[in-house]
């Protein structure tokens, strides 16, 4: 690890992943917990990031959306097999302002915009795939010849980190691990971990 600022270090590794990872270098595992404390994880796509944190977009009625509303503490994991590197991030999620979500929604393909309205994400589909296809057709008709607005149940979540772990594979499983945790001064405290 070459930079003591975790966001700068993330940027260096992320840029390299864009050159070496064949598909979706922005894929990250998001782990949440439900109200009983049971964890669940899924892969989402990082869409924006800066020194405030990491943003993904979702249906707020989905399982992850409901779990985030109940408990905003999350973990993210980037794993780039091509680089033999991973970054673990722990932090707190919060909904992005409407204007930011609107801006991103407008940048999506129209088909994805329609899908955001038509999909009751994570809910059972008793009528099978045909039910979803009918919902898509209804939404297409509803917004025919007009811009598709962002659904009120669809937005972005910003994960504000309080800890990073940068992991690099080492020979014979003698890996390199560096953890940076937020301190009271607004800076970061660094320590090396045994593999």
Q: Topology of this protein?
A:
Elements lengths: L5 H15 L6 E7 L5 E7 L2 E3 L2 E7 L3 H8 L2 E8 L4 E11 L2 H10 L2 H9 L10 H14 L11 E15 L7 E7 L5 E6 L2
Antiparallel strand pairs: 1-2, 1-5, 3-4, 4-7, 5-6, 6-7, 7-8, 8-9
Tell me briefly what this model is:
The protein has 195 residues and is α+β, with helices and mostly antiparallel strands. Helix content is 29%, strand content 36%. Strands 1, 2, 3, 4, 5, 6, 7, 8 and 9 form a nine-stranded antiparallel beta sheet that branches.
Shape: elongated
What is the average of the pLDDT values?
A: 96
Q: Runs with pLDDT <50, length 5+?
A: none
| Class based on secondary structure composition and strand pairing | alpha+beta
Number of strands: 9
**How much of the sequence is in beta strands?**
35-45%
Q: Please estimate the helix content.
A: 25-40%
Compressed to H and E, one letter per element, the order equals HEEEEHEEHHHEEE
Mind describing the biggest β-sheet?
A: 9 strands, antiparallel
> Count of DSSP helices?
5
The first-to-last residue Cα distance is: 15 Å
Rg calculated over all Cα atoms: 19 Å
């Amino acid at each position: 690890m070459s930079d003591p600022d975790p966001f700068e270090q993330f940027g260096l590794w992320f840029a390299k992943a864009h050159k070496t990872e064949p598909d979706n270098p922005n894929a990250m595992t998001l782990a949440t917990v439900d109200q009983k404390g049971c964890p669940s994880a899924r892969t989402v796509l990082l869409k924006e990031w800066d020194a405030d944190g990491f943003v993904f977009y979702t249906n707020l009625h989905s399982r992850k959306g409901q779990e985030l509303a109940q408990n905003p503490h999350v973990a993210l994991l980037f794993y780039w097999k091509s680089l033999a590197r991973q970054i673990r991030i722990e932090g707190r999620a919060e909904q992005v302002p409407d204007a930011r979500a609107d801006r991103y929604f407008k940048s999506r393909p129209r088909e994805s915009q329609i899908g955001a309205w038509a999909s009751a994400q994570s809910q059972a589909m008793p009528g099978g795939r045909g039910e979803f296809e009918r919902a898509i057709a209804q939404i297409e008709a509803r917004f025919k010849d007009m811009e598709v607005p962002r659904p009120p149940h669809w937005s972005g979540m910003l994960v504000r980190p309080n800890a990073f772990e940068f992991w690099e594979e080492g020979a014979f499983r003698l890996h390199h691990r560096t953890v940076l945790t937020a301190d009271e001064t607004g800076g970061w405290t660094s320590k090396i971990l045994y593999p």
